[in-house]
Specification:
The structure is a homodimer.
Chain A: E1 8-9, H1 20-29, H2 41-61, E2 68-71, H3 74-81, E3 85-88, E4 91-101, H4 106-109, E5 119-122, H5 132-140, E6 148-154, H6 166-175, E7 179-183, H7 195-198, E8 202-206, E9 217-221, E10 226-228, H8 248-263, H9 269-285, E11 289-291, E12 302-307, H10 312-321, E13 324-325, H11 341-345, E14 355-358, H12 365-388
Helix pairs in contact in A: 1-8, 2-8, 5-6, 9-12
Chain lengths: 389, 389
């Protein structure tokens, strides 16, 4: 008899397992033949799926459904929004400079459609929290004769889980006449997100971080008065904001995932308790372990830590062999081995390799035990090898 | 007892019903949790699905699998390729001007990332066939001091089904040192397509036109030496050619769809016979009907026709009420009512409204009869109304 060892998937910040509601909606949508742009019955049935999902995503963000523009994911949404050409009503508005934080996701840090010389980076402190004084100083030097400032940053960090002071950043941005884009990818479904309360002009969201499928996301506008020049051009889909036939089956799953995580926001205590238990045990097992950003506001599902001398990539492989999926840095930069830009932004040198454990609503106490047992073995082996060396 | 009238879906050029192999692969992929960029076991399982599909798409195009770059669809692929900034190996290559045909899909005609003043349009004849002399004349006037010419056009037309002389166009393009992009969206799976035989540098393909899901496509490069500047930027996915987490479930369906239609290329006689039968009956029922492009090489699944005085959009709605899904123009431009740009390019005035009937391998003789019966009723009613008026 072949025994298949159970696996513990603790990498929800890279991508979350598909929720049952998303799976059921997608399975049903496999039978929906039409193109949402077709006016016949099959087309209109497809259109209804898209519009239902649009309402569900809007609700999760405190937005109007006509502010939701579907994209192939958060990265496309970011490249669309990070652009100098906007229109406000019938007029053109130019964004002359982009301001992003040093701990942003690569899809913001890359600058989107801006030239590198038109991008400035504001710093974060040792805990990974955005230095709002640094942003304010940058914006005070912005030359408005060339165009408006565009400020883009994240609400919750994908590596540390740090929750940024976006409401304060929004006030600073507005005081300087800036347009404000918030990458809410890791935040929606984990903490309440309200586009108006944040003071954001746009949010960026992703389906696969909240239990929907990969390959679909959206940007959410707080007003239909201000919109970026389309990135993908051709047909008139998404009210002219984004050409190309919609990812119907993906969108069919995104909507229910948004509805489910929206309902679950009040019931995440067990995740925080599990996170706290894991962190306590990590520091008991390895007293020299550092849990990053532990003293600041964080997502309740994310643990980012390092053990002196323990290489994160090697440790990740050892965890994988023990049946536990965790991450060394973020998935989007996996493959390219190197220090985390988030840790570097926090002032850590090349030596620090962070391991990320990210939990989900489906994570069970057994998964936590599985991880801790594998970690204990790893630390013991590391100690033996260090003594032998 | 509620009787649901059977529907006949004859709009395969807008989007094709999902093939069983695609459905099964997608259903299986719903259980695949990992992010293809993650290095753990779950991530590697997702990666295998992507790479298997990549091989299947390459095979359908006569290309190497490492030439396939997945996108969110043909429109994104076109916007990526229609760009002035390319790299050849480690060097930069500039495309200074884009040449597209008047009968191209809006995703080419829009010019992608080129400014409108850097786009020239070459004509088609009254049958919708590209005027290669017009292209040659344009390219002879191209000023190479500014950069190379980029020629982009379609292999098979989405409205008329006309198969363009792409091999000749490829020779003309190469003789002028142009880079050649071929929109093969409506051609792959319906006629043999070989990127090298065509002489194309790039092909554009779409999943949902061949029985895969909507929201996934690819561009296929004939060499990894020449590549466009990425459109979507951020992470290092798709070898740095296209950032963003892959549409795993979509790609999982795209691959098997490509494999199935590739195997079916020799077995399309029944589609052509059905097409011919429908066209004969159309002209018997309405002797003043025009079947466009009937005398030139066409896809065997596409009928594009008009009846004098019969408004295409009204007729489409009547067909829909009779249980038959056909199209008035292409789906991507549905919603905006107006004359087909393809018919206009063929020299037809605003009065001509084309109806498109597009068949698939799943189309049954009963579907053809269903369409013809509805058409007969429509023509009779139209004649009565004309007499009464």
């Amino acid at each position: 008899m072949l025994m298949v060892a159970p696996r513990s998937y603790l990498d929800h910040n890279a991508t979350a397992p598909l929720l049952n509601d998303a799976r059921e909606a997608m399975t049903a949508a496999l039978n929906c033949t039409g193109n949402p742009s077709s006016v016949h019955s099959e087309g209109r049935a497809a259109r209804r799926i898209v519009e239902q999902a649009r309402r569900e995503i809007a609700k999760l963000c405190g937005a109007q459904s006509d502010g939701v523009v579907f994209t192939s994911g958060a990265t496309e949404a970011a490249t669309t929004l990070l652009c100098s050409k906007y229109r406000a009503g019938r007029g053109a508005v130019r964004m002359s400079h982009l301001y992003v934080s040093a701990a942003d996701h690569p899809c913001l840090l890359s600058g989107g459609r801006f030239d590198p010389e038109s991008v400035s980076v504001f710093s974060v402190d040792g805990d990974g929290v955005i230095d709002t004084d640094a942003l304010r100083a940058l914006l005070e030097n912005h030359d408005k004769n060339d165009g408006l400032p565009l400020v883009a940053t994240h609400l919750a960090n994908n590596e540390t889980g740090v929750i940024q002071p976006v409401e304060e950043i929004g006030r600073i941005a507005k005081a300087c006449g800036a347009v404000f884009v918030v990458d809410a990818v890791q935040a929606v479904g984990r903490i309440p997100v309200d586009i108006t309360k944040i003071g954001a002009d746009f949010l960026i969201v992703s389906s696969h971080k909240i239990g929907g499928p990969k390959g679909v996301g959206a940007f959410v506008a707080n007003s239909d008065l201000l919109l970026p020049a389309p990135l993908i051009v051709g047909g008139a889909q998404e009210k002219g904001c984004r050409a190309g036939t919609e990812n119907l089956i993906g969108i069919a799953g995104f909507g229910p995932a948004a509805a489910v995580v929206g309902c679950g926001l009040d019931n995440r205590r067990h995740i925080r308790d599990m996170r706290d238990r894991i962190e306590r045990r990590i520091t008991e097992i390895a007293p020299d372990a550092t849990v990053f950003s532990r003293s600041v506001a964080r997502l309740d599902n994310t643990i980012f830590f390092a053990v002196a001398g323990l290489d994160a990539e090697t440790a990740q492989i050892a965890f994988d062999l023990s049946g536990v999926a965790v991450s060394a840095g973020s998935a989007c930069s996996s493959g390219k081995v190197g220090p985390s830009h988030v840790l570097q932004a926090m002032g850590h040198g090349d030596e620090a390799g962070g391991l990320r454990v990210s939990l989900g609503a489906d994570t069970q106490p057994e998964d936590a035990d599985h991880f801790l047992s594998a970690f204990e073995q790893l630390v013991e082996r590391h100690a033996r090898n260090s003594r032998a060396a």
